[in-house]
Prior knowledge:
By secondary structure, the chain is an alpha+beta fold. The chain has two domains: 3-128, Alpha-Beta Plaits (2-Layer Sandwich); 130-175. It is 59% helix and 16% strand. Helix 1 crosses helix 3 (55-62). Forms part of the ribosomal stalk, playing a central role in the interaction of the ribosome with GTP-bound translation factors. It comes from Candidatus Polarisedimenticola svalbardensis.
Amino acid sequence: MLRADKINQIEQLTETFGSVPHIFLTRFSGLSAAQSDVLRAKIRSVGGSYRIIKNRLAKRAAVGTGLEQVSGQLTGPVAIAYHQDDPVGLAKALMDFAGDHPKLEVFAGVIDSSQVMDADSVKQLSKLPGLLELRAQILAMINTPATMLVRLMGTPATQVVRVLDSNREKQENDS
């Protein structure tokens, strides 16, 4: 690789590491090209990206970024999976794929450009509800009191109608 290409790759990686707050490190030895394509598609479906990196270049690019904290773990064939907004969705996609393909190993991560995670932490993160699920839960919590209020406001009127209906039935039976 030419020196200019290396400098260009370091600049691209530095920009990526500096602008993306959620990054996971993976080892992919033993995955076929077809399996890698499936993994990339799964990660793209949640809005993330997946890229194989050169460790020496990545270590240089990581200086001054959130990934610097785990740059010592960049050994062997390593790829990064990253997402701008949703670390939970990305972790779910990675762990789902790793469950079916044990040759993929998620061994570290950085969340919000500061919080370092090991493999177990990434597994725990993947079990949390995703962004859409959290939004649905919050919406349900907001809607519940309004629904209960409407139901309670309608209860007295319903009871009055039942009393009147019962009285009407009694009068029909008496005549």
